Amino acid sequence: MQILNVNPLAGNEWAESLARYPQSGVFHSIGWAAVLHDTYGFSPLYFLARQNGQIEAALPLMEVNSAFTGKRGISLPFTDACPALAKSTDALKETFAEILKEGKRRGWKYCQWRGGNETKIALGEPTPSQTFFNHQLKLSPDTEALFAGFDSSVRRAIRKAEKAGVQIETSTSLQSVKQYYRLHCQTRQRHGLPPQPLRFFSNIHRHLLSQNLGMIVSAIYRGRTIASAFFLDSGKEAVYKFGASDFKFQELRANNLVMWAGIKQWALAGKRVLDFGRTSFQNEGLRRYKLSWGTTESSANYYQYDFRKQAFTTTPDAAHGWHNQFFQLLPRPLAILAGRILYQHIA
User: Fold this and answer.
1) Which of 127, 219, 308, 335 has its CA 20 to 30 A from that of 175?
2) pTM beyond 0.90
């Protein structure tokens, strides 16, 4: 077995390898690698296992090198889940072994892998460093049946938004990205978190939306965008990646109408599943919201190998803490500046 380390941004080998894996998604793609590299300067280290001229395993990884938080490997930063792709467990085991050798050689503090039962088996079934909820909605072209599967509260909210005159627009334009970002900054402050930098979303537009690998669905009320969401095309699936809204218009339930519009569009486009992404165990409100759409709940495990301890370790879920109140009180321009600085270090 030959283990290769390739740069997906510098050749076609990674793209050609993905063609062997129909289960690969948007986060395995070269486009997503370009988003992470161009926004934060992370270095792509994408591993391939080759045997007899055939690709037997593929695992994307980014090196994060921060003067403040150290050097480490993550598969992948700002990605809810990025399972390893493999034809056999043996190929995956050899790939992980090579990654650990590379991490030790490069002086990483730790290496983290996000999601996938294959990852757990290949690593020897260690204790997860963190576990999250994951929610997926099975899609069907029968949109009436989909609608009937939602909780009654969701159906009422959708009808309320429609009755109030909220309109839906679907776009892949840079202008829609900027409209989303305005709402994103408001929403992140409400949740006590710094906003991701605008260049992150601009790069998603450049590398994914402009290549027809996603869309922005927005709710418009009296000429104003009051809710918006990013959806990404992930092969046979679609991914709900980001959502934001203007809280002053909360009673109109525009968020629900945006989600319903996205669900319908992806269902009619032939997607089999809409992935709602990860949810912290501490966020019961978000969990109930996702379940109200008729989703199936599962767990998503992260695994982290600490090179100093030479062992797999657990880490606390930092979704909630003192920082939430701090960023709620921080003036928005300073929060935006903090986001520009922090995210390249806290991936």
Assistant:
1) 335
2) yes
